[in-house]
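Inverse folding, one chain.
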């Protein structure tokens, strides 16, 4: 009686494929985790720390000047009102509207909301906007518009200033 090994062919092929897959998996696993992985990670972390230290020395602690925020909303709003009126007068602009309000619903903390409407000569209006940029506490502009007529220009600005308390 002759035995046939034909049914064992697929099983033998599957066994060989399984052994080859295991060998490849173990080989790839050893490539994925090199022996000096811990040393490489430590060197990478040290380089990151050095980069952070260099950036801290090169950059200011805050992107804003120290006086960009006011100490209190009440004092800051009075300062802004007075300074904006003074800047407009210096530029010979007519203040058609100036609103400086603090907080929400009567609160004394939170953002100071600023709305300015002024008109005058074009050059003075442009200069006024540059003056507002240098004002402290800083006004963070939400909207700004400059419209011109034959002899006058109108400036409208809305924005917010922020205080620490």
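Residues assigned per position:
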């Amino acid at each position: 009686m002759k035995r046939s090994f034909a049914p064992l062919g697929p099983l033998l092929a599957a066994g060989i494929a399984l052994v080859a897959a295991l060998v490849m998996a173990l080989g790839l696993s050893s490539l994925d985790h090199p022996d000096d992985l811990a040393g490489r990670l430590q060197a990478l972390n040290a380089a990151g720390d050095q980069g952070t230290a260099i950036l801290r020395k090169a950059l200011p602690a805050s992107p804003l000047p120290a006086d960009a925020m006011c100490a209190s909303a009440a004092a800051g709003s009075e300062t802004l009102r007075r300074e904006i009126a003074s800047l407009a007068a210096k530029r010979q602009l007519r203040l058609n509207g100036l609103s400086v309000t603090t907080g929400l619903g009567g609160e004394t903390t939170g953002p100071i909301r600023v709305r300015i409407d002024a008109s005058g000569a074009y050059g003075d209006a442009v200069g006024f906007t540059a003056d507002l940029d240098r004002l402290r506490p800083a006004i963070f502009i939400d909207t700004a518009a400059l419209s011109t007529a034959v002899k006058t220009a109108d400036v409208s600005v809305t924005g917010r200033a922020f205080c620490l308390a």
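Residues 8-32 form the longest helix (25 residues). The chain has a mean pLDDT of 80.
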